[in-house]
Amino acid sequence: MAHRHTLSELARASSGGLVSVKQAAKVWAITSHDAAVRLGRLSRAGWLARAQRGLYLVLPLEHSADAEPVVDDAWLLAQKLFAPCYIGGWTAAQHWGLTEQLFRSTFVVTAAGRRSQREVKLSTEFHLVRVGAARLKGTTTIWRGAERVAVSDRERTIADALVHPSWVGGVRHLVEILGAYRDSKDFDPRKLCKRVDELGVGAAQKRLGYLMESLWPEEEAIIAHTLARRSAGTIQLDPSLESRGRMVKRWGLWVSGTIRREAA
């Protein structure tokens, strides 16, 4: 019964079942050291699952010892594990309804010092990309339960992908996402150009301008905007391809194959 009461207290103080040493110390009105010791004991007894040092998942009372612990909300877990960070890439694109492509891992952009690009915590897979702290600016926040989590908005998600197409699974998926955005009620050419400008990367201007001119030539404002801001030098439209393909001098792009939007 004592464990049930203790776990109930932790569960009420948790966010999506996740509780830190600091939160536990506050709930129990004890020092952080004593709270860490008590949490460790509860974890070894099978009442909690350890996500990382100082962070635990409160397991349901009916949880089987043979079952893998699973967190309810991967976004909340990401925020606690990899802060400072934001949810971006393909996960943000899925959230905003810009792609139907399914990805196993949750995409996290972090300024924390992580060595691995892939981590699995509490049966949840994360794909991590490390950036400088300045790159975390310009995101938005949304409510996930009782907490706010940082996520790239529609335009920032596309801008990030224009810099790094791999963040959404490659250029083909970038085209899909760009097309879904353009066809949506949320399409805002000025905001899209602003987000690309904020990143200050000429390669993003080149890719956006070329794709718009190739697929949606009627978007003259975007094309003119990006043409005026494209950087010098040449890059590949799709950095994942070994073959450089043909040179499009107007945009300073090596393009391999034919770029087209798949029929809806």
Low-confidence stretches: none
Round the Cα radius of gyration to an integer and report it.
Answer: 22 Å
The major sheet is characterized as: 4 strands, mixed
Q: Give the helix/strand class.
A: alpha+beta
Mean pLDDT across residues: 92
Count of DSSP-assigned helices? 10
Give the tally of β-strands.
12
Share in helix:
40-55%
Can you tell me about this structure?
The chain is an alpha+beta fold and 264 residues long. It folds into 2 domains: 2-58, Winged helix-like DNA-binding domain superfamily/Winged helix DNA-binding domain (Arc Repressor Mutant, subunit A); 74-255, no CATH class. The protein is 41% helix and 19% strand. The protein contains 10 helices and 12 strands. The chain has helices at residues 2-13, 21-28, 32-44, 74-82, 89-95, 154-163, 171-183, 189-199, 202-215, 220-229, and strands at 18-20, 48-52, 55-58, 85-87, 106-110, 118-121, 124-130, 140-144, 147-151, 235-236, 246-248, 253-255. The strands form 4 sheets. Strands 4-5-7-6 form a 4-stranded mixed sheet. It has a 3-stranded antiparallel sheet with strand order 1-3-2, sandwiched between helices. Strands 10-12-11 form a 3-stranded mixed sheet, covered by helices on one side. Strand 11 and strand 12 (253-255) form a beta hairpin. Helix 6 (154-163) crosses helix 9 (202-215). The longest helix is centred in the last third of the chain and has 14 residues, at 202-215. It is elongated.
